Amino acid sequence: MTSTEGTIRLTTAQAIIRWLANQHIEIDGREWRLCGGGFGIFGHGNVTCLGEALHGAQEALPLYRGQNETGMGFAAAGYAKAWLRRRFMFCTASAGPGTANLLTAAGLAHANRLPMLMLCGDSFLTRLPDPVLQQMENFGDPTFGVTDAFKPVSRYWDRICHPAQVIQSLPNAIATMLDPAECGPAFLGLPQDVQGWSYDYPESFFARRVHRIRRQAPDAAEIAAAAAALARAERPVIIAGGGVQYSGAVQALTAFAETHRIPVVETIAGRANMLATHPLNTGPIGVTGSDSANAVAERADLVLAVGTRLQDFTTGSWTAFAPDAQLVTLNVGRHDAGKHMALPVVGDARLALEALGDGLDYAAPQDWVAFAQAERARWDDYVAANVRPGNRPNSYAQAIGVVNDLCDPGDRIVAAAGGLPAEVTANWRTLQTGTVDVEFGFSCMGYEIAGAWGARIAQDEQAPERDTITFCGDGSYLMLNSDLYSSVLSRRKLIVLLLDNGGFAVINKLQNNTGNASFNNLLSDCPTIPEPVAVDFAAHAASMGARAETVANPAELAEAFRRAQAADTTSVIVMQVDPHEGWTAQGHAWWEVGTPHVTGDDRVRAAHDAWEAGRARQRRGV
């Protein structure tokens, strides 16, 4: 490293790390380093140059050693969610399979609109040693390789072919990750030779910079049109999505709903926008929702969707609303605001809600509010009975109820994929806003532990006295459990509820619900498994350094949970749950899945006919 007046000679890798270390962000009047550090696994494609640069920046950018690259990406996503997209982590992987392993995590970050920076090794730019170890050769296009596979799952993509390119590429990547409308993962391919090439960078490039996330004001004409539509409504409902939290609009949403007396329903990503006890909180909506929210949604004549991309689990594949209901969307993203012939308001959720409320002399009719509250009361009664221990064989809902009763209101709850997202969404009673992370944008098995590890890192920066609690099924645990070891090594305490139902039970449930016989989902129904072998999950978790115990029932789970709360290290609590009788039976909207139009099985044919009958309410739109 040398310098002359006004410039400093650095390698490409050194410049990237030096620049990242000098980026900061202002959050609620306090400045933080924008990048919280990174997750890394070294190989020949990133250890000699990027590894050298990271070694010298350990204090500014701590590097967490991952166990596999997919888990690293999930951890980075969990970290970004916990920071409400205002800070991010980078992931570095070697060329070849190490980089390819990040593809699933990039898809998760893209679907959930989460910032994550990927710094991945790539083949030599000179091509002099080709073909090299782990190179994916494309015979007709030598520039096309593994890193190109990240283009559809990245919001920003670049391959650094010269050291000077980072002067433009890095700011562009950060601008994308911090843009409320364009937010998502950024990918930089770093050819192995270019990482070590040097360049005389202007010293001004590395000056300390403080970023602030832009708030886009809504268009006055769009606000006026939305206000006019709302003023005509007799049965309005607000759908609160994850964007409400990302824009810091939780209080604005609550104030708007209270002022105009409008029932609020929550999406999966928007869980914990309102406390469970708020009189206008009508419950979660959709396929994994509540009878209360779905009853209100299907009768509403105006649907005000705030900060949601209106995924099919929210809309019941567009059957959850009356066909003639007016859809008004408040969203910072033009793409999301314009869905299904909606009346769009493009802008920041908080600013849009405040602007929409200014001068709006409107309150929903009292009988409409009373209807929503009566429906919510009935749903609360159902949930109370549903989570009660002893009401049936061990279930997800019972475990959720135990944790809900014993956890601190500020503890962070994590779930993803399988049956647990539906069960948590339906049965969890929000104790404090912004405390629930149910990853269902990509519905990614394996996020449960890795994502919780990333969330725990973020939580230690914000509220270290709180716990990070993750609900994990046996299928997800077997798919990706190694970051349990990461949490132990890094002393980032997790409480893992490992609920074992003997396979992929929620897909078996879907299989059965569509008339199909159980096949290849539960271990007991796999024809290639002559005799299932039970996994000793507690022993496995203990072998990675976690406290682990197996409990027989919810009462024992409660005692084990108290011990986990008192412990200073990661704990795993294993309980078997029933794969057939343990499900939440109410609260579901219609969901479109492909069923066979031709079959020789009468049960499959009958299920197909019944499923198709639900299509009658499907809203036509684009």
TrEMBL record:
Any one GO cellular component localisation term in the record: acetolactate synthase complex
A Pfam family that the UniProt record links to this protein: TPP_enzyme_M
Gene3D superfamilies: 3.40.50.970, TPP-binding domain
UniProt domain Thiamine pyrophosphate enzyme TPP-binding: residue ranges: 432-574
This protein's record includes keyword Transferase: yes
MF-aspect GO terms: acetolactate synthase activity; flavin adenine dinucleotide binding; hydrolase activity, acting on acid carbon-carbon bonds, in ketonic substances; magnesium ion binding; thiamine pyrophosphate binding
Thiamine pyrophosphate enzyme N-terminal TPP-binding domain mapped to chain residues: 40-134
Secretion signal, residue range per the UniProt entry: none
Domain (Thiamine pyrophosphate enzyme central): residue spans on this chain: 223-356
GO biological process, one term: inositol catabolic process
InterPro entries the record matches: DHS-like_NAD/FAD-binding_dom, Myo_inos_IolD, THDP-binding, Thiamin_PyroP_enz_cen_dom, Thiamin_PyroP_enz_TPP-bd_dom, TPP-bd_CS, TPP_enz, TPP_enzyme_TPP-bd
Top-rank lineage group of the source organism: Bacteria
Family from the record: Belongs to the TPP enzyme family.
Protein name from the UniProt record: 3D-(3,5/4)-trihydroxycyclohexane-1,2-dione acylhydrolase (Decyclizing)
Organism: Pseudoponticoccus marisrubri
The organism's taxonomic lineage, starting at the top: Bacteria, Pseudomonadati, Pseudomonadota, Alphaproteobacteria, Rhodobacterales
